[in-house]
């Protein structure tokens, strides 16, 4: 057959021009048959109609197209169906109706539970498993995968350990893991968004095992093997959040006022030109996933009480880049908290046990952990 001399025409509606070399980048990214346009102008004029093709061909869409997003990140739906938990795994009370039940007067009494030896041992076990699951998911982070894929990894790793992923259906949260990229402060919902080289990503993993909860999170740099490495701003916010947590943990010992951690954290964040998020806090954790005491991460806070041996709680500072007051907004999904100005944000969390003379970091990382150790500014590892 003779080679056709006919050149393809522009994909623009009612445009008979020859197609140029301009390809739609979204088609390329989504792996669709690529549309060619004769000019940037024609591409722009046809964008409203053309972008519907992306949705039609992939089924993915932004569920809140008219929401004034604070940064460039968008939700990428549909979410995958709710993952199943086998019958033999013990489930927390929110598994069926999505509502965690609390003992009466829990808040009013402001009682800070002190765990006996058996309770402390149960916390050691669940926190070790929680750390294992976080490290498995973190090792899978790379450009090109979706956050939903990480949720699947976490869900399966929990089930393999006969543990329940605590976030699943907690106040109706739809997934087993929180994934918070770039400007997302916390509670991001794993979806179909593909991770990009240079993103930062927080994974927050919580497990329920033998009646107790463990809770840990870390922020990672998403990098390809050929990447030039994290940007200076991504490094700054991630390192600052990591240091804030280390500095606060170094002061956990009997007698330390619970309000002191916020002062340590905010002072360090400010010294790095960063802000502390005020809407979310650390919490007591044991048989209850979230309970008193509240651990506030900012100065001059109203955290009441002091550290006592046997208490278990988290410290989990959320730090945003720049002096934006750490203010946040929540997407219409009711969960995803983002920085008010779209600035990068990072978080680190450990579950801690106050001991007779200091602290045991129940979710401590082994030396080969993907995120690396928590290191203080002077380079000394603090635990
Ligand atoms: Zn957490
Ligand atoms: Zn937590």
TrEMBL record:
<feature type="domain" description="C6H2-type">
    <location>
        <begin position="7"/>
        <end position="61"/>
    </location>
</feature>
<dbReference type="GO" id="GO:0070006">
    <property type="term" value="F:metalloaminopeptidase activity"/>
</dbReference>
<feature type="binding site">
    <location>
        <position position="283"/>
    </location>
    <ligand>
        <name>Zn(2+) 4</name>
    </ligand>
</feature>
<keyword id="KW-0862">Zinc</keyword>
<dbReference type="GO" id="GO:0008270">
    <property type="term" value="F:zinc ion binding"/>
</dbReference>
<dbReference type="InterPro" id="IPR001714">
    <property type="entry name" value="Pept_M24_MAP"/>
</dbReference>
<feature type="binding site">
    <location>
        <position position="349"/>
    </location>
    <ligand>
        <name>Zn(2+) 3</name>
    </ligand>
</feature>
<feature type="binding site">
    <location>
        <position position="204"/>
    </location>
    <ligand>
        <name>Zn(2+) 3</name>
    </ligand>
</feature>
<keyword id="KW-0863">Zinc-finger</keyword>
<keyword id="KW-0479">Metal-binding</keyword>
<dbReference type="Pfam" id="PF15801">
    <property type="entry name" value="zf-C6H2"/>
</dbReference>
<dbReference type="GO" id="GO:0006508">
    <property type="term" value="P:proteolysis"/>
</dbReference>
<feature type="binding site">
    <location>
        <position position="215"/>
    </location>
    <ligand>
        <name>Zn(2+) 3</name>
    </ligand>
</feature>
<keyword id="KW-0031">Aminopeptidase</keyword>
<feature type="binding site">
    <location>
        <position position="316"/>
    </location>
    <ligand>
        <name>Zn(2+) 4</name>
    </ligand>
</feature>
<dbReference type="GO" id="GO:0005829">
    <property type="term" value="C:cytosol"/>
</dbReference>
<dbReference type="InterPro" id="IPR031615">
    <property type="entry name" value="Zfn-C6H2"/>
</dbReference>
<comment type="similarity">
    <text>Belongs to the peptidase M24A family. Methionine aminopeptidase type 1 subfamily.</text>
</comment>
<keyword id="KW-0645">Protease</keyword>
<dbReference type="InterPro" id="IPR000994">
    <property type="entry name" value="Pept_M24"/>
</dbReference>
<feature type="binding site">
    <location>
        <position position="290"/>
    </location>
    <ligand>
        <name>a protein</name>
    </ligand>
</feature>
<dbReference type="GO" id="GO:0004239">
    <property type="term" value="F:initiator methionyl aminopeptidase activity"/>
</dbReference>
<comment type="subunit">
    <text>Associates with the 60S ribosomal subunit of the 80S translational complex.</text>
</comment>
<dbReference type="InterPro" id="IPR036005">
    <property type="entry name" value="Creatinase/aminopeptidase-like"/>
</dbReference>
<dbReference type="InterPro" id="IPR002467">
    <property type="entry name" value="Pept_M24A_MAP1"/>
</dbReference>
<keyword id="KW-0378">Hydrolase</keyword>
<comment type="function">
    <text>Cotranslationally removes the N-terminal methionine from nascent proteins. The N-terminal methionine is often cleaved when the second residue in the primary sequence is small and uncharged (Met-Ala-, Cys, Gly, Pro, Ser, Thr, or Val).</text>
</comment>
<dbReference type="Pfam" id="PF00557">
    <property type="entry name" value="Peptidase_M24"/>
</dbReference>
<protein>
    <recommendedName>
        <fullName>Methionine aminopeptidase</fullName>
        <ecNumber>3.4.11.18</ecNumber>
    </recommendedName>
</protein>
<keyword id="KW-0963">Cytoplasm</keyword>
<feature type="binding site">
    <location>
        <position position="187"/>
    </location>
    <ligand>
        <name>a protein</name>
    </ligand>
</feature>
<feature type="binding site">
    <location>
        <position position="215"/>
    </location>
    <ligand>
        <name>Zn(2+) 4</name>
    </ligand>
</feature>
<feature type="binding site">
    <location>
        <position position="349"/>
    </location>
    <ligand>
        <name>Zn(2+) 4</name>
    </ligand>
</feature>
